[in-house]
Design a protein that fits this description.
About 35% of the residues lie in helices and about 20% in strands. The protein contains 22 helices and 31 strands. Strand 7, helix 11 and strand 8 form a beta-alpha-beta unit. The chain is globular. Its cofactor is Mg(2+).
Length: about 700
């Protein structure tokens, strides 16, 4: 249970520490260390200085109860004026460590030459260098390309050519010829990557007490070549070939083989229903599809091949989810994984990659929006370079890192984490199973993950089950999150498990192959906030009249705060007008999520009365204990008090409902419009709110 915050950290008493779950024998020493750290910040120090001192002193440890972390954090910032100072920071870049980051090293080497006498150090000169990257794209990208494992068969004539006036964005890497999959598979001395380097670490669900498995770069390349050789016996260069299966080692091998051979990957998420699979196969004109017989997740066997068969008549190559034998009978024309691989027998183990121009299409993905209509989004060979450069600059992915981001090749984060690891010389960590529980969290520990990505709903699940308890996550040095708006307290839990490492918030799009707004390890970070635009990215915010601010809108409601942070308030269609005041669902949910300890998550939507008039606020809630009986009126009053105290006293909660779960897209985004439509129907049946 969360401990009640005090008015300042100096007001915390032994009884508070005990209520937060710390044993009485430890309370005295803890309080002494806490007060000593707070005093080091100086008399009358502001909350950020106090928190920086407490965090630097290591007073709070990962094994401490979350309630203790809550007590200290919320007490430190109890008097913080967000309106005047912006969101409170929880992580601060080190003047020493900043020079060991990718971007910091680049700035130290080139800053004095590029910025002149105005260059000071990576932290104080970061904003200046960011502006330089936007205004001098060719210079910036020529430097960054040298940091990645990108090998051109034919060097580009220009980084950015603007000679073709019909192409407003210019032509990137004009004249370049390469194969981006080959770049992932070759040794790279500058990144200290050899054939013996570990390319992939993985573990199968259910084998959580076994050592993790490892695949070297040489082994990965050999298996990719085998698949590419087999593909050559069945398809013509340029054919589009789908992948619809979990992101396993086999899926990664197939993905790289398709690109290496000059074919085009069609990415389909493994959660789709037959009709959705069929639609994407038809839109992309895919000739075949790689899939599994089943998906093993959470100890259950979920049929996958049967959905593919219902969705498309295209040839399927079917991989067994476990063992060497399929658990299904194949229809005529489909091929088992074993028989497919046998087609490569007798072919050379040396493979000639299909070299193409930088603008050649290698992957067709689909948008993960909430409109229901899939939009095909082609990725050229530029896209992997862009996403790898993004993670190089913002997530600071380096050689020897072990990167893990549970996702699927059907969603943009699948190809992004694949290329971000391989083009930066890092190891890709894959868990063959559900990422929701303790077993995945143990894999993070056992694999030695150093860069861990997630989506907020995953973090909420880990926190609700306290699945990191007793595990060592301190090897993690950077955390990433994307997909939906973050919950402040969930992120407090997440970073506390790693001894307060930075969480880099990322917001972008499939068509961007990257983010347009992110956190940076050269800037202080605040929970649920972005510290700035992505490197080399210029953008604008549009106000309600469509007038541009200096930020790109991208369909999101973005608030620029005091202190220079940006907070994404959700999609443009998730706003509401309450009593003449515009607000977002995310703002209300952030407040309501902390109104009661029994809550797992909330969703806020507005309902327009059938007869017209002002919008009414409705809040739906999912409980941690789905079987618990709860007084809805009591919950409604708690929501009302929380909103009045922390958001706006004029906002009135009109309706509260407890539901077992929320509808989500296949990429786990909350479908508030579905909730809104369901409530409208339900309330219209009752003829009143």
């Amino acid at each position: 249970m969360a401990a009640r915050a005090r008015g300042s950290v100096r007001e915390i008493q032994p009884v508070d520490v005990g209520d937060a779950g710390l044993a009485a024998a430890e309370a005295g020493a803890f309080l002494a260390a806490l007060r000593s750290a707070a005093a080091a910040a100086g008399p009358g120090a502001a909350g950020d200085a106090v928190w920086a001192a407490v965090a630097a002193a290591g007073v709070l440890r990962p094994e401490h109860p979350h309630a203790l972390h809550q007590l200290v954090y919320y007490s430190v910032y109890a008097g913080w004026d967000r309106a005047a100072r912006g969101p409170p920071p929880y992580w601060f870049p080190s003047p020493i460590d900043c020079k060991q980051t990718n971007l910091g090293r680049l700035m130290e080497e080139n800053g004095p030459k590029l910025l002149g006498s105005s260059y000071k150090d990576p932290i104080s000169s970061f904003n200046h260098f960011y502006r330089f990257s936007v205004e001098n794209q060719e210079v910036y990208w020529s430097m960054v390309l040298k940091q990645l494992a990108v090998k051109f068969q034919q060097e580009p004539k220009a980084i950015l050519s603007t000679s073709d006036r019909s192409n407003k964005g210019g032509t990137w890497l004009q004249g370049a010829v390469l194969n981006i999959a080959e770049c992932c598979l070759l040794p790279c001395p500058s990144l200290k990557r050899t054939d013996d380097s570990t390319a992939i670490i993985w573990r199968d669900e259910g084998l959580d007490d076994h050592p993790v498995n490892r695949m070297s770069l040489k082994e990965l390349r050999s298996q990719v070549i085998t698949v590419a050789n087999a593909l050559d016996t069945m398809f013509q260069k340029g054919d589009r070939i789908a992948i619809d299966m979990p992101m396993t080692c086999d899926a990664v091998i197939i993905y790289l083989a398709i690109v290496l051979g000059g074919f085009v990957v069609v990415s389909i998420a493994d959660s789709f229903a037959p009709q959705e699979i069929g639609t994407r196969m038809a839109v992309s004109k895919a000739k075949a599809i790689f899939t599994q017989d089943f998906i093993i997740r959470g100890g259950k066997k979920v049929p996958l091949y049967s959905r593919v068969v219902q969705g498309t008549s295209s040839k399927a190559v079917v991989i067994p989810a476990t063992g060497g034998y399929l658990g299904v009978t194949l229809r005529n024309g489909d091929v088992s994984w074993k028989d497919f691989l046998s087609r490569a027998a007798g072919r050379s183990s040396i493979y000639s990659a299909a070299y193409q121009s930088a603008d050649a299409i290698t992957n067709i993905l689909f948008s993960s929006g909430t409109t229901g209509e899939p939009k095909a989004i082609p990725w050229t060979q530029l896209a992997p370079i862009r996403c790898a450069a993004d993670t190089w600059a913002h997530l600071d992915v380096q050689p020897q890192d072990i990167g893990c981001w549970p996702t699927n090749l059907g969603w943009v984060m699948g190809p992004i984490i694949l290329y971000s690891c391989f083009l930066n010389g890092a190891t890709l960590a894959l868990y063959h199973g559900s990422p929701l529980g303790r077993d995945f969290c143990k894999f993070v520990q056992d694999a030695g993950v150093t860069v861990l990505g997630s989506v907020p709903s995953l973090v909420k699940s880990w926190k609700a089950g306290n699945y990191a308890k007793g595990l060592d996550w301190t090897k993690i040095r950077v955390l990433g999150t994307t997909g939906e708006a973050s919950d402040i307290d969930d992120n407090l839990w997440l970073t506390s498990r790693t001894s307060y490492k930075p969480i880099v918030e990322c917001c972008g799009g499939t068509e961007l192959a990257s983010s347009y707004i992110q956190g940076s390890l050269l800037q202080p970070q605040a929970f649920g906030a972005f510290s700035g635009a992505s490197m080399s990215t210029g953008f604008v915010i549009l106000d309600e009249q469509g007038t541009p601010y200096q930020l790109r809108r991208h369909g999101d409601i973005v608030q620029r705060t005091v202190g220079g942070y940006y907070i994404v308030q959700g999609r443009a269609d998730d706003t509401m007008n309450l009593g003449g005041i515009k607000t977002s669902s995310v703002e209300i949910e952030r407040v309501c999520n902390r109104a009661d300890e029994g809550l797992l998550e909330t969703a806020a939507v507005s309902i327009k009365p059938a007869g017209g008039g002002p919008e009414h606020l409705a809040i739906l809630a999912v409980l941690k204990d789905r079987s618990a009986q709860y007084d809805v009126n009591l919950l409604k009053s708690k929501f009302q008090r929380a909103i009045q105290k922390n958001l706006n006293p004029l906002f009135k909660v009109s309706y509260v409902k407890i539901v077992p779960q929320f509808p989500r897209t296949a990429s786990n985004k909350l479908l508030r419009r579905v909730l809104r439509d369901q409530l409208k129907q339900e309330l219209s049946n009752h003829s009143k709110l």
